[in-house]
Amino acid sequence: MGFQALPVFTIQLHIKDLDLLKKIQLFFGVGVITIKKNTEKEPISAVFSVQSLKDITSVIIFFV
Question: Which residues have C-beta within 8 Å of that of residue 62, sequence separation ≥ 6?
Answer without folding.
Answer: none
